[in-house]
């Protein structure tokens, strides 16, 4: 069973930066599609970003140019670097994964098998 662990959330002022990390102790994530989703209070779950095994990436329009997803092969970790944070980015962020070593792309739809527990990101105005 794949257990995803998210770290790096917290409280930041508008315009600030945070870096979320996703790891799975004892599991090599390099053959998995990895994504980040978020759910804000009263809103639908939203696909934020994803990265394929081949490191092709996808981003929601709301975060393009501000967020960057990075796969650290050696460290077996996927990061979500979030810059220029806005109060509307406030949400619980979830790391997600699919075993799919052959797909050149990754989905921003919630069709992922494995989900982390989620981590809070709060952006104050």
- Percent helix, as a range, is under 10%
Average pLDDT figure? 95
State which percent range the strand residues make up.
Answer: over 45%
Biggest sheet details: 7 strands, mixed
| SSE order | EEEEEEEEEEE
Distance between the termini: 39 Å
Shape: globular
Q: What is the CA-based Rg, rounded?
A: 13 Å
Extended strand count: 11
Structural class: mainly beta
Q: How large is the count of helical segments?
A: 0
Q: What oligomeric state do the depicted chains represent?
A: single chain
Low-confidence regions: none
Task: Explain what this protein looks like in three dimensions.
- The chain is globular.
- The chain contains no helices and 11 strands.
- It is mostly beta strands.
- It has strands at 5-7, 10-13, 18-23, 32-39, 46-51, 57-59, 67-72, 77-82, 91-99, 114-115, 119-124.
């Amino acid at each position: 069973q794949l257990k995803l662990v998210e770290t790096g959330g917290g409280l930041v002022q508008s315009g600030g930066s945070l870096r979320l990390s996703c790891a799975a102790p004892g599991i090599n994530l390099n053959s998995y599609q990895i994504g980040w989703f978020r759910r804000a209070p009263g809103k639908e779950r939203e696909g934020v970003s994803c990265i394929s095994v081949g490191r092709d990436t996808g981003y929601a329009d709301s975060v393009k140019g501000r967020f960057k997803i990075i796969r650290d092969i050696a460290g077996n970790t996927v990061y979500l670097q979030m810059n220029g944070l806005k109060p509307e980015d406030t949400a619980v962020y979830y790391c997600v994964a699919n075993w799919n070593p052959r797909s050149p792309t990754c989905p921003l739809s919630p069709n992922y098998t494995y989900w982390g527990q989620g981590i809070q990101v709060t952006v104050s105005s």
